[in-house]
Write a structure and sequence with these properties.
The protein is mostly helical and 154 residues long. It is built from 7 helices and no strands. Helix 3 packs antiparallel against helix 4.
């Protein structure tokens, strides 16, 4: 039946991935012999090309460039980019489900009347407090001339 077909396709896919992975180890290792600046330039070019080819809009290229600038600024100022990426990916999902829970409840007060809601609200408040104020304290406690990224100021 259908389940047997799915298992057969998965088995063939796993076998092909294993064989191709074994055969492509040396060519992929050869790519690591190139200078890092060349590889990063090539990756950037492929990102721009892929963003344009997805919908054939120049606007998508501008969005890709803006995201690259934001990522570069975050790295330069010592902010980790992972929370922003998680927020961009999970934000719409959280928004949809929060809206769904508000529509299912009679009001937002009902969500905070339960212990789970209060614990989650407390975690959000602590995360905001920690992210906004702790970084400022860490910067002010450092020696003069040292940025928050731990680099000497120029």
């Amino acid at each position: 039946g259908l389940l047997d077909f799915v298992y057969a396709v998965l088995a063939v896919a796993f076998a092909l991935v294993g064989v191709l992975g074994f055969l492509l180890v040396k060519p992929v290792l050869w790519l690591f012999s190139f200078p890092r600046t060349f590889v990063m330039g090539l990756v950037g070019l492929l990102c721009l090309l892929g963003s344009y080819l997805a919908r054939s809009l120049l606007f998508d290229v501008y969005v890709t460039l803006a995201a690259g600038v934001v990522g570069w600024l975050m790295r330069r100022w010592g902010y980790p980019p992972a929370p922003m990426v998680l927020g961009l990916i999970l934000g719409p999902l959280v928004d949809t489900n929060l809206r769904r829970s508000f529509m299912a409840a009679t009001g937002w007060q009902e969500l905070l009347a339960r212990p789970v809601g209060l614990v989650l609200l407390g975690l959000v408040a602590f995360t905001l407090y920690d992210g906004l104020f702790r970084r400022r304290w860490m910067v002010t406690e450092m020696a003069p001339g040292v940025s928050s990224a731990g680099q000497q100021a120029t």
